[in-house]
Amino acid sequence: MNYKIGLKLWSLNENYIAPAIDLFEREVYDYIELYAVPNSLEMLPKWKTLAKEHKIKFAIHAPHFSSGLDFSNPNKLKHNLMLCDEVKRYSNELEALYTVFHPGIGGSLNESIRQMKMVQNLKFAMENKPYIVPMNSGEAFCIGADFNSIARILDEVGCEFCLDAGHALCSANYQGLNPYEYIAKLNKLNPKIYHISDNDENAKLDAHMHFGDGSIDLARVLRLLRGGEFLAIETIKDSKDNLDDFIIDSNYLKSIS
Known about the structure:
By secondary structure, the protein is of the alpha/beta class. The chain has helices spanning about 15-25, 45-55, 75-95, 110-115, 145-155, 165-175, 180-185, 220-225, 245-255, and strands at about 5-10, 30-35, 55-60, 100, 125, 130-135, 140, 160-165, 195, 230-235. Helix content is about 35%, strand content about 15%. Helix 4 packs parallel to helix 5 and helix 6 crosses helix 7 (about 180-185). The termini are close together.
């Protein structure tokens, strides 16, 4: 496999630090993509220890809608930029390989672009989204779910692209498009980063199933994801004490590539 394999963790996952070190030393993965939970800067020194003492590389995933960051909402501008400052701390102090943002949910594309252009002194990538997400009041539409919106963000913001294959599949199914053809089309936007997990091949809502638990033709997806450098595995964690399920997922992915 030509990609660097990423282990997805959250900044509050102190419980996974010891197994993460073990798996890195066993070469199960190449780097950690760390979700920077808001107000968790007290955890940053612990992750810096992994970087300094164990030479583990990091990437950063910024908070998204469920954690309070929504670039599409004009009323959240001040709060969004405050969260971006925390993301910068994580990215700078861990010397991040890349930093990923979601464009937003439920607002306007123009507002997302306006606010994303206000993020200064941080090189980052935007991640494509499913078309819809479940909400307490029903469903909400995501910014950056269709090809034209993604292309416009990349062009006007000047950021890099993170192609989430699972999100692309869900968006394609909602739009009535062939999901594999849609993933291939998005790959023409030259993503540097990929995210991958399993799901029902006909799903319209996102899921993070273990490889083989869904019906996505993952071998076909891997053949479509060509040109990028990083591939973060975003499957669920079954245990709070170990990462044994990640070992299985990583090995599965390598076996079909």
